[in-house]
């Protein structure tokens, strides 16, 4: 992707509700991701941080990250990707489910929890990012090419 090309993001909210669809996306991300950013929205759910301590490149406290502006500072971990990380991610059902019913739209938490995750390529551009507790997922169009 050239630096002067515009980055096209597609709203994928509600399109990765099943484990099968999730695994397809994880496979594509594994081929193109250099690192992830993992945001501790729920500080009690830090298993990824514990498991992948040796792959952490940096930690920042921020109020903004891809797709989110928060009133509170959260710890944002930059973690180098690895086969082990993707093997671990495959164990989850999906990031989050977004459902529409007569009562309106709602996000359904999965075994992934409510922490946000973003995947970045070698140019530090996002391939996918979530606002997990809202059920929102954005994917860069060229992930599929």
What's the short version?
The chain has 145 residues and is of the alpha+beta class.
Characteristics:
3 helices, 7-stranded antiparallel beta sheet, disordered N terminus, 41% strand, 145 residues, two-stranded antiparallel ribbon
Structure characterization notes:
By secondary structure, the chain is α+β, with helices and mostly antiparallel strands. It has one domain (31-144). Helix content is 19%, strand content 41%. The chain is built from three helices and nine strands. It has helices at residues 19-32, 47-51, 83-90; strands at 9-11, 35-39, 56-65, 68-80, 96-101, 104-109, 116-120, 126-131, 136-140. Strands 1-9-8-7-2-4-3 form a seven-stranded antiparallel sheet, with no helix packed on it. The chain has a two-stranded antiparallel ribbon with strand order 5-6. The relative contact order is 0.27. Residues 1-5 have low confidence and may be disordered.
What is this structure's SSE topology?
Elements: E1 9-11, H1 19-32, E2 35-39, H2 47-51, E3 56-65, E4 68-80, H3 83-90, E5 96-101, E6 104-109, E7 116-120, E8 126-131, E9 136-140
Antiparallel strand pairs: 1-9, 2-4, 2-7, 3-4, 5-6, 7-8, 8-9
Helix pairs in contact: 1-3
Q: Which percent bin holds the helix content?
A: 10-25%
Number of strands: 9
- Strand % is 35-45%
Mean pLDDT: 92
Secondary structure class reads: alpha+beta
Biggest sheet strand order reads 1-9-8-7-2-4-3
Task: Categorize the overall geometry.
Answer: globular
- In the predicted model, the low-confidence regions spanning at least 5 consecutive residues are 1-5
**Can you tell me the number of structural domains?**
1
Radius of gyration: 15 Å
